[in-house]
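Researcher: Structure for this, please.
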Amino acid sequence: MPTPVSLTIRAHAKLNLALSVGPPRPPKGYHPIASWFAPIDLHDEVTVRKLEAGAPSRYEIRWAADAPRPTPIDWPPERDLAVRAHRVLERHVGRELPVALTVEKRTPVGGGLGGGSSDAAAALVGVNRVHGLGIDGGALRAISVALGSDVAFFLDERCVAGGSDVPRAALVGGFGEQIERIDSPRGGVLLFFPPFGCPTGAVYGAFDASPTAGVDMRRVRALVNGAAAAGGVVDERALFNDLGGPACSVEPRLADVWERLRRACAPDAAVHLTGSGSTLFAMVAAGGSRSLRERCREGAPEVTVVDSGLCSS
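Model: Predicted structure, token format:
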């Protein structure tokens, strides 16, 4: 495959269809997880253009015109995960890799959808390809550890090779480093974006106050196996998230919104939390349900409701 001078990569968001969390482990206090990650249609776009040797790299982080819930970009570019990914890759190869890097965001910040992690993965892939570094997926995943535990999921081998922008669904365990690729489930999704986020650190702190007995991959795998036996259809009423209660204790507004959306969706769909919040979601038939969307908008008018779907393998 010829080395491109410039490319644009769709950085897809993900849902945690199931999330089991274990107590923190020394020495760093990280929490082991067992989770079912599934990419969705909602995506950012990361554009990487190679610059001539010696040129200073340039960065632009902005919201797309059709972003469902834009918020102020109140962080300097140096703190953005995509920019940090570029810098980490430069340190890895021991030289400058000049690029013009643009992130056009659609995935809400602080929503539990992995938007920043997906952007970081796209930046690693893009810089790797335009500079012809030839770093394989395993090495990129090792490099990504410095950026956060979710980044490795988005570094599917076929994404690294340029065959697709969409990572396959996966069972994710350990601290995010155990990734077992599986067939993606099927279906539409309604996404609910409250006008606030949930601070991840505080949510895990609340979890630590009353942790579960331990991480439970068997429970997550049973849901995956059930979907496979049903032709990719998810038993959405069996989905779960151990961080749901802690997130509501940290952000009481989430509990109120969640309850109103539950009432609006009943009996047609259940409402679930992804990651540490604040995004909620409901599984629906492909294409969604207009009446369900309208009921949700009436029941929680401050919430942005967006049609999406699970990405196919």
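Researcher: Any notable elements?
Model: The radius of gyration is 19 Å. The first strand starts at residue 6 and ends at 21.
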